[in-house]
Structures are given as structure tokens and as C-alpha cells.
Write a structure and sequence with these properties.
Elements lengths: L13 H5 L6 E4 L4 E6 L5 H7 L10 E4 L2 E7 L2 E6 L4 H12 L5 E4 L4 E7 L3 H6 L16 E6 L2 E7 L6 E7 L3 H16 L7
Antiparallel strand pairs: 1-7, 2-5, 2-6, 3-4, 4-5, 7-10, 8-9, 9-10
């Protein structure tokens, strides 16, 4: 039986992303295992079982081993792992939260990650996102479920010192968002010419 190869919905955009000038960088993130966790009570038992203190402050994320734990709601988190297969990760997380009355669902194929970097990336995001992206308000550890262009996304600020963001978008909207980001970046990556 032939093994299916995993390909990214953004594979066709890789070369175009690579040609963007410095003020805005866009790269498709490698595939990661992702699990949606529902858990009514978060405390030391959950932290010990999962190996991470789940963020309890709204709109935040924390590092979690080789991935991240993202707050999605009062009883919902998105956990990622870059070293485990989706099946292994879901099984491990489910075994940790089931005794605590929680649930874990593999959603690895649901979202694609786009890494946005560069001095003008906040400007690009601001053209299609209504949240305040100033570093004092939306710095490292911040996350938001918002709309970018017309696509629903989860936006994570990865750094305070640099403009570095991760955008998680549903796989079915990945192509649309890639085109939208490239179009929005044009304003900040091209040098205007003036007639003399």
C-alpha cells in the first residue's frame, strides 16, 4: 500500500513568500500536531497531567514543551506539539485530561500556520484586522481570535522586541489568506515611483 505524503495547502505560495522584501516576511509553518482541549477546572492536577500550566488569562498563550498552549475560551485550549504525531499527541493529552472530566480532540488538519515577521508586519496586519496590535497592548504571549481580511484566524504575538506573529487559519482559507497577505504587503514592500 502506498503511503500518502502530507503536503501543505500553501506549498504553491512558498516561492512567492520567499521573494518578499525585508520589511515583511511570510513563511508557511511546518505541520504540527494540534489538539483542542476542553477542561472545566484548571489547577495543579491538570498542570501535572499535561506538563504545562494552561493559560487562564483570556487571549494569552504559553510555551508548552515543543509547542504552545493557547487560551481559546474559559474551558478551551489549543495545544500543539512539533515532535509528536497527531495520533500520539491526542492519545497522550486525552489520557491526561479524561480522568479530570475533560476531552481532547485531534484538530491537526484544521489549521495552517503562517509566520509573519518584519518591521512593517504590524502595518500589514492592521490593514485587515480591527484589534490593537501595538506592542504595549499585544506583546509576546498575547493571542486573539479575530478576522484578518475576511478569514477567521487565531493570532499569536511571538515576540516583544521584534515584529513576529503566528497566524493560524483554517486550511480551507489558507490560499485566500496567503493571497490577501501578499496583496496587503505590496503597500509596504514596494518603493513608490514619482513622476518628475
Amino acid at each position: 500500500m502506498a503511503e500518502l505524503l502530507r503536503t501543505s495547502p500553501l506549498q504553491a505560495w512558498t516561492d512567492t513568500f520567499a521573494r518578499l522584501p525585508d520589511p515583511v516576511g511570510i513563511t508557511a509553518e511546518p505541520f504540527v500536531a494540534t489538539v483542542d482541549v476542553r477542561l472545566g477546572t484548571v489547577g495543579p492536577e491538570a498542570s501535572a497531567a499535561l506538563g504545562v500550566d494552561l493559560p487562564t488569562a483570556p487571549n494569552t498563550w504559553v510555551p508548552a514543551g515543543t509547542g504552545r498552549a493557547v487560551w481559546l475560551g474559559p474551558d478551551e485550549w489549543l495545544l500543539t506539539s512539533s515532535t509528536e504525531t497527531p495520533e500520539e499527541f491526542e492519545a497522550r493529552v486525552r489520557a491526561a485530561v479524561l480522568p479530570l472530566g475533560g476531552s481532547a480532540t485531534d484538530v491537526s488538519a484544521q489549521r495552517i500556520g503562517l509566520r509573519l515577521t518584519g518591521a512593517r508586519v504590524r502595518d500589514v496586519l492592521a490593514t485587515g484586522c480591527s484589534i490593537d496590535l501595538h506592542p504595549r497592548v499585544f506583546g509576546r504571549g498575547s493571542s486573539a481570535q479575530t478576522t484578518l481580511g475576511q478569514a477567521g484566524v487565531v493570532l499569536l504575538a511571538l515576540s516583544d522586541a521584534a515584529d513576529d506573529f503566528l497566524v493560524l487559519v483554517r486550511s480551507s482559507f489558507a490560499g485566500y489568506l496567503a493571497d490577501w497577505l501578499l496583496d496587503a504587503a505590496l503597500e509596504f514592500t514596494t518603493t513608490p515611483t514619482h513622476d518628475r
